Structure formats: structure tokens, C-alpha cells
Amino acid sequence: MEATQNATEAGENRYKLEQIDWKSMSNLGLSKERLEKMNVLEPLLKGYKTNELVPVTLDLGSSITKMDARLSLQAKEDGQLVLAIHGIRKEPQLHFKFFGHEFTKEDKDNLLKNGNMGRIVDLTNPKTGETIPSIISIDKLTNELIALRTTLIKIPEEIKGIKLDDQQKTILSEGKPLYLEGMISKKGEPFNASVQFNADKRYVEFLFDRGNSNKQAEKQDIEAPKAFRGKELDSAQFEKFKEGQTVYVSGLLDKKGKEYQGYITFDKDTGKTGFSFDNPNKVKEKAQPKEESKTQVAVNSEGKTNEATKNSKEPLKSKQTSPETEKQQELQEKPKEAKSKGRKM
After folding, report:
1. Contact 277, 262 (CB under 8 A)
2. pLDDT of the residue at 277
3. Counting Cβ atoms within 10 Å, is residue 229 exposed (0-12), middle (13-18) or buried (19+)?
């Protein structure tokens, strides 16, 4: 369960820089400068999880594990500040009890459909035995189950120009979805959509079904980031990037401080940024093997033989492709899965 945090006022930090054990952070490949460049230090000090995945290196002595994870700072009972690593799970753990709550089929369907369970349930704090009325959502970046006590739910007075009445506020405060008509997008265009309070994001989010005619309205309200891995985009790059065009970016730094470059593309449907070392827009022609090489290509790629093998008594051997370079492994885009070290209350 997500660590319980008191709501902080705007601009107020829950933790101080000097409370952070920077030596331990350094052992994870993290530093104050790096966190600042990624724009994740401020939410950490405010007591929230980072709003994006952060590359982390775990040196276990006999082995080194690299992963992408969301981070948060948590205070132990003795007041010591520790870093919590929220690794990526293959799928949400819905087949087990979650702080005493057993998910029904409807609960599972709702969570898998839009990330929110849609109702209030009583959860039990395993340390104190306290019963806590809460709503449950899925962290869409890590698949971690997140619970938020109902006393921390804050419903806005209006959403996109629609002033909420008491009944609508009650529906949202109970974790249920609410359909609103006549909202106005940032471009001044009207749209309709369902909204629901998300326990992970801690605010009311929009829910759009696939194929919904208002899908375009959702795209208009997803803002493209102005920086990628700490590198600020110039105005020309950002204009292309926010429109979904591929942009070449140089001067990126890996964990060892070495520069690399590549191509980034903003997906307006999901709000995610894709990265590639090669230009994804450049169509590469598939090389045609010479006639004498077709047999080996067929064995390597398709497990087949051709006419040249019919009279051969020797079995054909498949050649191995060369392993990825160390740099490619280090900079690969897809985050690695990490085992959860247990849920936190």
C-alpha cells in the first residue's frame, strides 16, 4: 500500500536535501545533479513518487542489476530517510489479498480496464491493525497496486469548465467514474468524457474508451515534455516533437557520463516518449543474400533448407548473432522487470 503522506501546501517540501543519504544514492547511480536534470528531485522532496521512470543501478557485490523504476523517499520509524524503489511488475497482483481485501471479478475487471477499482473498501494496516477506508488504483508505469485513504481525496470545484454539484462530487469521492458533457479542451473545443479519481496520481483523470469519437480531445490535453533525459529541447525541436514527429537529439549522457545520441518520438495517444538509436522513419531495404548464401540464411532465420541441401549428408548448423555491445545493453529503451520487495503501508 502506498505510504500515507500528509498533503503538503503548494511549494512546501516534506523532506530536506540534507536528510538524503547521497552516498547511498550514489551507489545506485543517482546524484543530486542528475535528479535535478530529470526534474524528479522536487516531487521526491514533496513526498511523492517520481512521475516518470528513473534508470537505477543496483550493485549487489556479486552482480549488478540495472532497472527502470519510480522512486520515492520514505521516513522509517527512527526518522531515517530511505529511498523506495518501485520496480516494474509484469502484471498487477490481483490474485492475492491486498491488505486484507480480496478482489472480486468486478474489481479485477475495473482495474484492468482503466486502472481504477471504482469503489471504497476497508484495508487493514498490518502493523497497527487499523481499518482504513481506501480507494485502489494501478500505477500504470509499474503495475504496482496503490491505495489511498479516503481522507486524502480532494475533489475540485470544476473540471474543464463544468462546475460540479454535490452529487457529482460525492460520486468522485467514492472512487466511482462520472460522465461529463460539454467540457472545453485547451484548444477551446467541447468534448465529453468520463472522469474518475486516481489513487496513484491523486487527482481526477479522464477515461477514454478505445475508438471513442472524443479520442482527439484526449490527445489535445496531453502535454509533451520539453526535456528528454535531462536534455532540454530547443523551440524548433519541441514544435516537431509535440506534433508527433521524430526528432534527433544529441548530447545525452549515460550512467558513466558518456555522450550518446538518438531519435525520440512523442506518442500523443499515450503521452509516452519513444527512443531509438536509428531513425525509425528511414525505411531500410532488406538485403537480399547471394544464391550461395540462401541455404545458411534459411537455416539461421527460418529453420528451412533449400535445393542445395538435398544431397548433403552433413547437418546444417545455425550461426549465432553477435551479442549486444555493453553500451547497447546499458542504454536499451525497454525497462527491465524488477521483483517487488513487498508492499508498503
Report:
1. yes
2. 86
3. buried
